[in-house]
Automatic annotation (TrEMBL):
Signal peptide extent: none
Gene that specifies this protein: LOC107812498
Name of this protein: Protein ABCI7, chloroplastic-like
Gene Ontology biological process terms in this record: iron-sulfur cluster assembly
Alphabetical list of Pfam families matching this protein: SUFBD_core, SufBD_N
Residue ranges of the TM segments: none
Any GO CC annotation of this UniProt entry: iron-sulfur cluster assembly complex
Superkingdom of origin: Eukaryota
Residue ranges of domain SUF system FeS cluster assembly SufBD N-terminal in the record: 57-205
SUF system FeS cluster assembly SufBD core domain: residues covered: 223-451
The species this protein was found in: Nicotiana tabacum
Amino acid sequence: MALSALAPTSVSVSSYLSTPTRISQKTPKVRVFTKPKLNSIAALSDPYVLQIAETLEDSLLSTSFPPLQKLRETSSETLLSTPWPSRKDEPFRFTDTSFLKNSRIEPVLPPKIQSSSLDVFSDTLLPTISILDGYIMNELSQLKELPSGVYVGSLLSVNSEAILKRVSEYESGFKGDLFWSLNGVGTPDVLLMYVPEGCKVENTLVLRYISGESSDKGSKALPFSNPRVLVLVEKGGEISIVEEYVGGDKDKCYWSNSVMEVVVGEGAKVSHSYLQNQSLNAAHIKWTWVQQESTSTYEHIEVSTGGKLSRHNIHIQQVGPDTVTELSTFHMCISDQTQDLHSRLVLDHPRGVSQQIHKCIVAHSSGQAVFDGNVQVNRYAQQTDAGQLTRSLLLEPRATVNVKPNLQIIADDVKCSHGAAISDLEEDQLFYFRARGVDIETARKALIFSFAAEVVDRFPNASIRKKVETHIRELLDPSRL
């Protein structure tokens, strides 16, 4: 791996560490390094980041499978020049990651679990793929018969030469932040979802991410998993995906560091629903990268309510004309949480359409929500229609929200708008309910739920929509607020 390519002599990555860290230690490996040109980069590398990478490397089985090996090597090289983010870095100005850095990070090993010990299908009849601590679990999955040519499963288990060739041709070239690269180094496998040309998958597919390994609050240990998904939808194909992140005990600590890459072919459509309900003491960091070809459609609907630290990075690139992008997100803080959404849409071609609505509720005095949304309309993206709106409810005096909606427009024939609003519930609305005999707590609950409903109602699957509605109503219990 490229992490090992630090010097022309036989030394370990750990020999570059000059300060003690809180990472779980293992016996260092001895390797022969073959790329002296990286010496100058290594001298400037962050020892803490290199130690995490070394720990991840030691926890994984080596592989000679070209796509996975290439991913790990590319990510390793990137980590050599990537420091741990701080509040001085603009993308993390409002997001404190000290919770992670002050923990003892422990990569999760392959799970040894009986399928009967987890009840993962009790609330859905939809085809489900289970990912336990980053590992694809076939025994915990229930996939109905898929259309001919569709593949959903481990990248390491693909036996179709045509699909392998397509995967080997794919290369996003995208470089995310530190957490994107850590996932590339630490993922044990990639869940591949492949839809061939002209194929429409009728049934919604559920990806259920389960965090099994965890530690008690105050122990400083933080089990660390790195699930990764690659979605390739060819010309004219269609698929609907639901990502659902769940944890066990609400007081448990762990870190889920997830990546999904989506390629939407010409005229294809992807509907992507995303539910995040992790433990309130967990860390959840997510990257979603999307590439849209001409006349394609990508719809994203998100509800995020869990995690002590939750951050979602969305990067969408329109690489053809007449593309449609719709983003609808709802975040809610009910305790000492940070809910962070960083989104970026890049439009390079004519007649692109993008609509984004972001809503958040902060219902705790120590809660914080962050929204940084960027829409970049470049020179040749003429006749673009781009809209962006963020609305926030602060229900406690010291609750915090930091919003930064922004448009960067170079094209001159466009229709673009953005806006932001932050407030508490309006007294006139509460008075309207009370004048009709509705008590104040019920009135507040109804108004808050209706605020969230604009996003929740956009879930295309009725069973998922009902499930989310029930979950939000439980969170809005008057005793919580």
